[in-house]
Design goal:
Length: about 150
């Protein structure tokens, strides 16, 4: 038994919202780390710290920079850490999901070749961030609807 509400689903001793938050956190940690590995990231010699001149491509599809990889690692670590509690996982999913939606809108509005594109987004990044952000917000909301009112 857990202290989760009687209607919350619990797997591996954690509520679904915690599993979702931890899963997203781990995924982002892996993506951030793999962005530093030649071969997984093509044109690795063109990996720059920031800006649109970084032409390194994660999986040959997503433009990356050192700063973007660090941001992915930081968001992933935050998600992994916050998912120790239901409230933390919900807050991570909704907050970081909103951040990814904002990053997507930013990337779509400044354009790929703009100097303002300091994180080195391309169109695949922008649309993936939008989908990821919406999915994270939805998961945070859906999986926490039946949480108990108690804070942990």
């Amino acid at each position: 038994m857990t202290t989760a509400s009687p209607h919350a689903h619990v797997h591996f001793g954690r509520a679904d919202v915690q599993n979702a938050g931890m899963g997203v956190g781990i995924l982002l940690l892996v993506v951030g780390a793999l962005g530093f590995i030649p071969g997984v990231t093509t044109q690795y010699s063109e990996l720059m710290f920031l800006g649109p001149d970084s032409h390194a491509m994660f999986l040959g599809l997503f433009q990356v920079s050192i700063l973007l990889n660090i941001v992915q690692l930081a968001i992933g670590a935050t998600g992994w850490a916050m998912s120790r509690t239901e409230h933390g996982a919900r807050n991570f999913l909704i907050g970081a999901g909103a951040l990814y939606i904002i990053l997507s809108i930013f990337g779509l509005s400044v354009g790929v070749d703009s100097a303002a594109n300091f994180l080195s987004f391309n169109m695949a990044d922008n649309w993936t961030h939008l989908v990821l952000g919406v999915a994270m917000v939805a998961a945070g909301w859906l999986f926490s609807r039946n949480m108990s009112g108690q804070r942990k």
